[in-house]
Amino acid sequence: MFYKDDRLAIFIDGANLYAAAKSLGFDIDYKLLRQEFDRRGKLMRAYYYTALMEGEDYSPIRPLVDWLHYNGYCVVTKPAKEYTDAMGRRKVKGNMDIELTIDAMQLAPRLDHAVLFSGDGDFRPLIEALQRQGVRVSVVSTIRSQPPMIADDLRRQADNFIELDALRDIIGRPPREPQQNGD
């Protein structure tokens, strides 16, 4: 499905990919991920989308966002919004679908292949629009989790479905060894 001379871009829905990898029990090594897709074609851009909590002294995602930014990713962030639902529970909302869609549509005329790292069914119309412009679309997510992390209609719309679990040995970070006392 990948051709060496393909102009390629990857679009990573950060929260969705994190949840999919976590459900499969591994962490993503973003350096290896970028190398893998650089190897599969001419990688034009690698985008990573995530919402960030404002006002917190420390955000656990901040070191990753900084690392990605310094290592060739186009990092797109926006402030997450906090609200209280009807049951009085504090919720956080940080949907990045519009930002990802706009970037993909703007880049489409210069692409042969787009790789979407998300299982969110809301992206089905985006895939359809990219395909109408002649862009092949691969979707990376998982059907091996319970429940599956990919919407069935998204998987059906894509030209190619890549099972995230099948990439584990290529882009997975080795599990950290537990620290021993006295080392």
TrEMBL record:
Coiled-coil annotated spans: none
GO MF term list: RNA nuclease activity
Matching CDD domains: PIN_LabA (cd10911)
Domain NYN: residue ranges: 7-165
InterPro entries registered for this protein in UniProt: LabA, NYN
Source species, domain of life: Bacteria
Full protein name: NYN domain-containing protein
Species for this entry: Paracoccus caeni
